[in-house]
Amino acid sequence: MNPKRRNRLLVIALVVSGAGIAVALAMVALSENINLFYSPTEVSRGAIPQGKTFRVGGLVREGSVRREEQGLRISFEVTDGPHNVTIDYTGILPDLFREGQGIVAQGRLDDNGRFIADQVLAKHDENYMPPEVAEALIKAENEGELANPHSTP
Amino acid sequence: MLPELGHYALILALCLALLQGTIPLAGAQGGISNWMALARPLTWAQFMALLVSFAILTYAFISNDFSVAYTANHSNSLLPLIYRVSAVWGGHEGSLLLWAFLLAGWSLAVSLLSRRLPLIMVARVLGVMGLVSTGFLSFLIFTSGPFARLWPIPVDGRDLNPLLQDLGLVLHPPMLYMGYVGLSVAFAFAIAALLGGRLDATWARWSRPWTTVAWVFLTLGIALGSWWAYYELGWGGWWFWDPVENASFLPWLVSTALIHSLAVAEKRSAFKNWTVLLAIIAFSLSLLGTFLVRSGVLTSVHAFANDPKRGLFILMLLAVVVGVSLMIYAWRAPQVKSTGHFELVSRETMLLGNNVLLIVATASVLLGTLYPLIIDALGAGKISVGAPYFNAVFVPLMIPLVVLMGLGPLVRWKSDQAARLQQMIRGTLVISIGIGLLLPWLLFRSWEPMVIVGSIIAVWVALSALLDLRNRLRNASSFWSGLRKQSRSFYGMVLAHLGVAVTVVGITFSSYYSLEHDVRLAPGETFVMGEHDFLFEKLVHHEGPNYSSDLAVIQVQKQGKQVATLHTEKRLYTVTGMPMTEAGIDWGLTRDLYVALGEPLGDGSWAVRMYYKPYVRWIWLGALLMSFGGLLAAADRRYRLSRQSSSSVTANLQENGI
């Protein structure tokens, strides 16, 4: 093989192996860092394996926000209509967090079925609804109608 | 009356853009010089029409004309004047108008600064830009007209989102858009060159300064956005791997690859097909960014209320641009021969490494950004990809890139000897490792593996730049005359590379040695964090022009000595009813002290967030150096010479090969 062709092969081999390693790294990292979104209805059905990090979202239920006397622990419920999930969080909430607002929390379930959040996201725009939350609300409403056909006026 | 005039000006601009996108291109294909000559006047006319339109919208904001729906939704009579002006691009319609206006501005600049370019090239470049403009203006007019009237006329406007009432946001979108739109010039040059079948070193030299300047704006825009997020969002973070941030970062990564491969295309006549493809990808990614931001398909802190119809339109525009340009590429590229051959050990290989690493990084960021969309489209559930993914993939790719960045400039074009290089860099490498190991210990008395890696590569980049300079001055008659003899593009490169080193230091030090605490604090109480004592002195009430606020005064002491007084606010904007945090920051070259007021906890105490962030300023300082380096490189003398006598200089440059 002449040296020019050998060099070209070397370059190609380097590029291909580099890209291959990068793809492998990316796939491993991706599979470890995906957080699934569940609605409160799905959470209350017990669809989630314990100890796994996921996201839950809905509206903050009116009158459900409780703060502890000491420290920065806070608990509140998010709802999609028929079902609620209680969320515990320690830290400072985003500016736009308030009752009735659509939020998304990321964290995991503890043994008692409470959701321990390590991140609470509320949006910059008060009219904005995270798409997942909007869809979960519509889904819950539809399912409610199916389950109880007489409830509609 | 005026807003209608603005709307007509917009429609006129669309018609002119359509003409600009068709007649000169047809003229170029058919060799009709009268048609080609229309490119410049049409560009000027389109610019004037958009200038009128943009000025009228700005006037509607300044004069509080709330009969215009867009003004009523994004402004208020109490809003300070500067924010009323910046509110013009505070919403969807206005930011698209800004986009179109800046595109017309870039076209104008091309038409004015291309006097020495062959007419056929000018006609093609401006024609392609006219087509891009046609797409955007029809999007603007058919889905998001900024001049729609409102009836009944509201008494006052609904105010600008408080987050956007900030100096950072006055500057961030125009800068970023200048970068996005600037990439359309590189794209237009690439398509024009493909159409003409003229992919030579001259083409690379024409498009190089434009691409570099667009890259400078993109760099500044991203840095401003990151700085704004740092002080305005009150989380003290400067990068969140948020989909919208990624949307601006992707074109940046590709255009960084592009400015490096353009160097090879210009100097060595190699990588030509690849460079054209990069130009197409870079512009497509800036369109993708616009789509992601404007359609709101992704959950993001930047996503605002929106309309799916708009997303579909941009997606179609994106499909047309990518589809047509790739078709032209497939049709023309096989005829292009790269003539510059090179050996394994050569500058070309180093730049190839740069390109491969940057493209792989782009692909992995793109994958993480779009993955939630793909999974959703497949109906497999709603997911989000966390920041750890991006860090795990991106950082390992950047380390070899920065190492190459130091080595690359030392390697000769075409072919070099590994033995020569080894001997040359051995000393520098040892010193870099030594200093890199010592630095974290001297400054912080602690060793973190990633900080050691970061400081070694940063020192390596700085020292290898010095080594490069010494090599270049070896044959100079005196030190100063040698320094003066180096080209601006060389200094630009050195400065930009040093900027990367500075940013690397900022990122690693601030990521690993920051202190951060959320605490419950009442006035009069002190919190001790590291070497600093934070005393919550008092809380005062304060009324702003369009908000009322609780302002906390926090005194910081270090070893009994007063070092800073921080003011942090919790504002309530009266019109929107939105609360906003204003962080209090004492900045310094080696550390920032940062406090942000959380919420009142009922018993007089407040939730307060406190940070000590060492070297965090270096992140943006580095970006400034990169931008300045880019400007210096774009101002190189040979780009101006090339306009006077492009053919003779080509030959010259082949000889010199800086």
Descriptive report:
The complex is a heterodimer of chains A (153) and B (658). With 153 residues, chain A is of the alpha+beta class. Chain A folds into 2 domains: 1-34; 36-147, Nucleic acid-binding proteins (OB fold (Dihydrolipoamide Acetyltransferase, E2P)), CATH 2.40.50. In chain A, 34% of the residues lie in helices and 28% in strands. Chain A contains 3 helices and 7 strands; from the N terminus they run H-E-H-E-E-E-E-E-E-H. Chain A has helices spanning 3-32, 40-44, 131-147, and strands at residues 34-38, 54-60, 66-67, 73-79, 84-90, 102-109, 115-121. In chain A, strands 2-4-5-7-6 form a 5-stranded mixed barrel. Residues 145-153 of chain A have low confidence and may be disordered. Chain B has 4 domains: 1-165, no CATH class; 174-327 and 345-409, no CATH class; 417-513 and 620-658, no CATH class; 515-615. In chain B, helix 8 runs antiparallel to helix 9 (201-232) and helix 14 runs parallel beside helix 16. In chain B, the strands form 2 sheets. In chain B, strands 3-4-5-6-7 form a 5-stranded antiparallel sheet, with no helix packed on it. Chain B has a 4-stranded antiparallel sheet with strand order 2-10-9-8, with helices on one face. Chain B has 658 residues and is an alpha+beta fold. Chain B starts with a helix and ends with a helix. The chains are: A alpha+beta (153), B alpha+beta (658).
